[in-house]
Predict the structure.
Amino acid sequence: MAEELGLRERKKRETRQRIADVAMGLFMIRGFDQTTVADIAEAADVSVNTVFNYFKTKEDLFFDRQDVAVQSLGRVVASRREGESIVEALRRDFHEALDERDWRYGIVNGAGDFYEMVMASPALRGRMREMHELRKGYLAQVLAEETDADPDDPVPRFVAAQVVALTQAISGEYLRRLRAGESYVVILPSVRVAADRGFDLLKSGIGNYPEPT
């Protein structure tokens, strides 16, 4: 029974990923607003109802890894190493993401195309703003739990806002240079340097908050 359930869950994950991959391919070719859920269902060889079983909205299809994006900073903070401040944990995770060419900070080869699609759609721009707010909220919740803060204590929210603003600024600088025609390989070293300066400034502002574990 357990093996059967495991196989069923794996097939569900594979179906979900296939639908999301097909959808992104169509979005890149036709544009987000010009692609319908029916188009996606036909291309993925599933019914429209099946698409909606996995994704509530078309925006969810585009941002199919929204939960990971929203929770990523909070998870880094919650799982930081013993004696490691949140700034140093985030700095380490940022450089690891670049080393692994992971998408979680938005600094990857395909980021330019992704950004252009978002900017071309009011619905996607709205969802992106919503995700930034969710990311701040999730990080603030983690910080409040880490410090056992009172619900009326604004400090976790202040710190979360600064952290998210920095990561947005770093990815924004990368996108600015990418759109200006510079290559990923050329941009990467200077983005690392700029990010370290940003983390240094952040650390000078919030210090070791919360106290290292």
